[in-house]
Predict the 3D structure of the following.
Amino acid sequence: MTQRTCAACACDCELDAQSIKVKLGGKTVEVCCEECAQALKEADSAMAARPHGES
Ligand SMILES: [Zn+2]
């Protein structure tokens, strides 16, 4: 059995059909609610917007 938990708040609640998939860069993570999805997206874009991030 695979137990999936929220990638944002690290709560112990299991994700079920109500889980929300969030695409960050190349990978997809699952969170428990819209707020967690938003938090992950903001954290991701903050990373991307980092100055001197040229490769
Ligand atoms: Zn959550």
Remarks:
- The CA atoms of residues 20 and 33 lie 6 Å apart.
- The chain is about 25% helix and 20% strand.
- Helices lie at 34-48.
- The chain has one domain: 1-55.
